[in-house]
Records
---
Amino acid sequence: MLDGAGASARGAYAGEYILEVDNVRKEFPGVVALDDVQLKIRAGTVHALMGENGAGKSTLMKIIAGVYTPDRGEVRFAGKALDIRTPLDALNSGIAMIHQELNLMNTMTVAENIWIGREPKNALRLIDHDCMATMTRDLFADLGIRLDPGAMVGDLTVAQKQMVEIAKAVSFNSDVLIMDEPTSAITETEVEHLFRIIRDLRAKGVGIVYITHKMSELFEIADELTVFRDGKFIGTVAAQDVTRDQIIKMMVGREITDMFPKIDCPIGETILEVRNLTLPGVFHDVSFTLRRGEILGVAGLVGSGRSNVAEAVFGVRPATSGQILIDGDVVDIKSPPVAMRHGMAFLTEDRKETGCFLNLDCIENIQVALLSSGKVDNRGFVNQREVNRLAEEFCAKLRVKTPNLAETVANLSGGNQQKLLIARWLLTKPRILILDEPTRGIDVGAKSEIHRLITQLAAEGVAILMISSELPEVLGMSDRIMVMHEGHVSGFLDRSEADQVRVMELAAK
Amino acid sequence: MATQAIGAERAVPRVHRKLPSEINILLVLIGIALVFEILGWIFQGQTFLGNIGRLKIMILQVSVIGIIAVGVTQVIISGGIDLSSGSIVGAVAMVSMSFAQSAEYARAVYPALTDMPVIVPVLIGLACGAVAGFINGWLIAYTKIPPFIATLGMMVAARGFAKWYTKGQPVSFPTDGFASLGSGMMPVFIFLGVAIVFHIAMKYTRYGKYTYAIGANPQAARVSGIDVERHLVKLYMVAAVLAALAGIVVAARGQTAQAGMGMMYELDAIAMAVIGGTSLAGGRGSIVGTSIGMIIFGVIISGFTFLRLDAYYQEMIKGVIIVAAVVIDTYRQRKKMKKA
């Protein structure tokens, strides 16, 4: 199966560019996701694509996969302009992609997953399961994968599922294989195996795009690397010509502007203390303190356990061991209502999934935390006039741009939705405010307004824990920065000593 | 601080209530009624709406299921479904009637417990409903099984219980007090009472606000400090207690209880809610809407009878109307979202 028709392009293009992204630009309302970027992949090489969260890597991958169309520029494959409308088009033309989130059907077998839509048929035009199993075994033998083709995918480990994904991608005889952080969920030995497969494919002339955050992997596997930053192309270099420090500099050279106006304010006594908080497999031994008026920034790559720690502190998914102390007393925060009784508020990372009630109106969105805190009702009856008054007051304070608070929230912009969610929590008058990505996906104007608000709250004595993937935001706003790496706290940095390089060194060991 | 100066420079966001969405359903109701009025003059040579007696019968026919629909609406708004209400009607009809029998009847289920004050069978019946609802709610909230399955199980089990209770024998001869719960326009008054209470609960209390929030986004509701599990148990208990109340009214009205009572009521109740604008996706709907949905239901049944159309047509057209209501609503919802 591995030497089928799809391999035609390979021999002819060995060492030449097989996939070329030329001056591609993509805008979304309010943001330029990609600004004239380039990416040139040679056949028979491993090309690492690097950049911080939000650098534009995923957008580019979606363009190559045909999910988005570029506003400008061109993607060429084997010298010809590429016309891809669906993921199937991409596969048929020789580009396979392994996404960070696995796309397998858990209730079907390994073989069924690999050959879905392309099942071998017998004389009666029915699916030939024996043939399918044989094809799968041949494929696995080639890749050195030891898995039963008849096993249920749902019973496999994450690493095994990843192998199935890779085998599936390989089975298309693709000339280009794109892997988005393939090692984020697998162990050392499995990484070894993965690298062996990648080297094999490279030897066969496949061009491999390898998206990663991990420096160590980069030097082990990549031939070339390209760095994106803020949707811009920074450069392509040969992996042997650069050092780790040079790459970090390429990745983080963002300007810190006056968008992040943390004003100095007196920092009071410790209000929240977390000791050795552990949720096995997610985060381990996390300890920190948070004081009145302080902003503690939390940096780290996506998947480093930052949000999980926040969820544990707020009781959404409590830790299994460790202690949380508020005002010096050990408290058992087993659910969000308990956290709220201790004066906590939690703006979640995902506005749509765990934040907004999109079908409901602004008032209903704003009032919910206040209602469950039990402060504005009279034996269960809601004093709607009072709630409306408070909501109007806070929306004015936060400059929510909607003429009518009875408007359905789905019709508001991301920035205004975020402000409503902040208003929801401010109504409960929190002493400890946990913000997870407070400015993700919102426009620049709303961003700086939210920053101003955060620092103002700190000045009023609120203790703030702010998680952010944007380094300039963390550096500009925080009094101290806690950096996390793979579920562990890898270090604390003071405002005075923190800079982008130091944070990245701790975050991307 | 910067807070004071802000209000002056731009319009302060205010709450301006828009026209209630129930207006649309009300217009549909008026439209359907007018169609029957016109068809009446054409085919029967008489008025449809002008006949008070007919309207009374019409509202009486649907108000028992309307009582159930008030509970089912709340469950659907929370993103769930309740298939057990019809069977609970049957089971509670049997149980409450067995505690409401008159001493004059020689073959009472509990010969020692005849001529009880009316409050006894009523409370026992409602308590049965509460237990069934608690089981539904507990299963859904804490074992996380889909509401469809949990209430399907209750639907089958409660029907079985109703048959087992007297080994299939009907239970009859209630006291006058019990029978009065179903006589005359009493079912309509009970429906009105229930509808008003829960209209207020859904609109003006935390109970209602939580229900909408859970239906719109359960994760967000949880993070906002709502005890989602506990609230779900409450909701399914309310729905089952209302079904039990309907069971009492049905038994009282018929002056007899049979294990097969209330068959398919759950589907009619769901249909009333859906016609009344309740979204099966959760988060949207109202008691007012469901009440209008109930009347639409009644107008259609009574209208077909009035036009002397076959009962078979009635059911077919009822099916079409239920689906059409949801199609139109989905379309409208999509248009609303696209605007954003």
---
Amino acid sequence: MSEQKTIPDNMVRIEIDDKEMIVPRGSMVIEAADNNGISIPRFCYHKKLSIAANCRMCMVDVEKVPKPLPACATPVMPDMKVYTKSKRAIDAQRNVMEFLLINHPLDCPVCDQGGECELQDISMGYGRGVSRYQDEKRVAIDEDIGSLISTEMTRCITCTRCVRFLEEISGTDELGGIGRGDRTQIGTMVGRSVDSVMSGNVIDLCPVGALTNKPFRFKARSWEMMSANGISMHDAIGSNLFYHTRKGEILRTVPRDNESLNEAWISDRDRFGVLGQNGDDRILKPMIKQAGVWSEVDWPKAMDFAVKKLQSTSGKDTTVLTGSQSTNEEYFLLSKLFKAMNCDNLDYRLNQSDFSQPHNIPRVDLDLNGVKDNQQIVIIGSNVNHEQPILAHRIRQAWLKNDAQVSVFNAKDYGFRFNIFHNYIANQIEWVKGLGSLAHCVADLTKVKLTGEVGEWIDNQATDENLNHLAKQLINKDNNALFVIGQVANNHPQAGLIKAIVEWLADNTDGKVYEMACGANSVGAEICGVTSNTNAADLINSKSKSFVIYQAENDDFNRMQLAHETFDKADSVVVFSSFADKNMKEVADVILPIGLASEVAGSFFNNFLENQKFKPAANLPKEAKPGWRVLRVLGNMLNVDGFDYDDISEVMAEVDALSTKRKASFQPIEVTHLNVDGLVLHTETAIYDVDMLSRRSNALQETIHASNDCLSLNSSEAEKLKLENAMPVTLIQGDYSVELFINIDESIPTGSVFANKCVGLRSDVLEVEVRGESS
Amino acid sequence: MYQVNPQNNDKTLANELLTQETKETIESWLAKYPSDQRRSAVIGSLHAAQEQNGGWLSKEIMQAVAQYLEIPAIWVYEAASFYSMFFTKACGKHKVSICTNISCMLNGAEKIVDHAEKSLGIKLGETTEDGQITLVKEEECIAACVGAPAILVDEHYHENVTPEELDKIFKKLGGEK
């Protein structure tokens, strides 16, 4: 070349198929080819996983090298010349293909992967028309690895992508290569299931039909389906998805790559949660209740009925409560409609109990890609792995790749898949005190004191050596600190105190805060104004005459029984919902069937205030209508101005114009002092109980993470109470009691009992009594 | 690859199932490797566990070894299933491995196999009814080509084996009842 280009030190110049490119030093040939649009066949290589180089499919020809080399494990060298289509490369690829097909069944028509199978595709390009192999093929016995993934291990080509995913990304090490040589099989440690909350990703990773989507099995072929963009409906990461639909019905969900959010992964809740759409209690037609009898009616009649109900009470006497998985547009119109009717009783924080801090947009000082830059991460009151599995994955990667040290303040040892630096596990009262001690240590070290009642409370907490050690690390100027607050903290009776301490800690250690939003779109509800001066707990306790419940159900409330009683006593209850269970039908007067976020156009705000828009992926079932249309018509019928929208884009434009600025920081609060004699209750919403969809997804409910009717406590507590595993007991919380079964679990700290919230418990009353059957 | 996941500190099963002697053997293996590479001790540990467990590795004892080594259970199972000297199913007290690799095969290993199968009335991979002898299936080269055909009886080498000699060995093994 006549012209000498200057190449930076960290780059090298190579040629692939005579195409010149400058690529990072140390990268592999296959990466260079992928980034420059040259395709090399591969099975085991995946950009997000470690390099195994065991399928040998990506053989390429390199100049001056006597043998073909695997492109995935060959680093680029200066002036390297690679040929991917030369005779030697193609021969090598064809030969590997023939060997891979030796033991692989040749019955694509009966395989669930047929039509979207990497092996099938590549064998079209590199395979022989006829198999020369005459001998017996290897067969493998299939294992049952749970309700989400179905196995057909005879089809496995042992690329080990699934093994590497579970080891490196999910961190659960559940699959391995069992046996040796041609008899190697991918399997579990004898009869275990794969229980990672991101396990579904191995379905996408598997290049063949060995691991397939169990609920989707044999439902459709890939070419029969349409693909539609979607956004996660279950957590505020806002993972990007593709819904695969046939005739307007969502059959499965797969991830849509988004490097700044979910990378190439999605959680199982995002993958299988949408299957709840076909729940038995889906409302397909508008329904009204007259004299205690439900009847299905047409829309005009139902709307008239609803309008009459709403007009019978003044706006001041109406309360509006919503869940956290509706679109911004619905929240916006809901707020606009009822605020125009002088209603100042709106809230979306149904599961929260301490409202001493005013409602606000959750504080998030960084984006997901920024998580890895923090050397000190402190998780406060959160089962992050269940609340936002993608965040847990990012924290894990920070620990794994950047040696971040992760500390935890929790009421249960959740078994995170990273090592814990300081593990402060104590009952619901004590861990908050531990957080106070940490703040005390930081205050002593920095000589900066927090004023007011919170400051006094912190001063009263004893310091200890371990926490002092952590405090030193946090204030170290070389360390970036990140404080992650989750739902255990958010629903804690001292939530305001916890947040005030964390805010102060972050400011004093130059740290950042990541406050996890509840559900998929509570951020949207906040921004769109489904808020008022009265909070959800007071509203549930109020004597409002009329209630409007928007896409929420009994299980969404902190005080389920009280909510039910209050609705029961109210003059009218107007429900907008996709589902209505028995409880809802008992109290509602009219149920207007609206679409799920996957069935309507709209947008979600995620934790990072990104407003992600989507179009309807699925058809609305029967007579259900998009929520925003129902609200629009209702606005017109109630003669409220500004409801003449023709298209959702007009509502979207108004949502876009809303301020996403967080209100000023936390205000001084009064400290709630907690004192409990005896056992302290820790209750939280299970991973697959977070919203109406996940509760109805059978595949998820059959996993081990689904909620159960167990009362967990550790063996020393069980011994004290003379309780044994599986023993029936009665748990009494205030005037509510529930029958549960004892589960001895060492992850529960001493002095604490744990139960899922869905058994009817509330998270703000910590005092409980456990009564054994015999006593 | 180094361990990428948090170590499991639960040692209930390990303390319950592993004897003091086994634990000491495992410790001596662990001492030979860097502290962050506990996986390296898996083979030595499995030998100790297998000896303790009467010549084979049950699922529970493999889990106990995993707990003791603080590594994922699947890693232990991978190693146990890979090597022919580990037995993941219950087998006889004595293991007879007849090498059938190239040198031994050329020197008549097949005859030895035939003779062993006939005289014991079992196939390779099976155990005699009295639970005394297991014929190990498909033993690969045991590095005794110089004395082919060679067999391995409970970690002892016998070279230039003849059917007559085999009978003697079996008699001795059976006689120890």
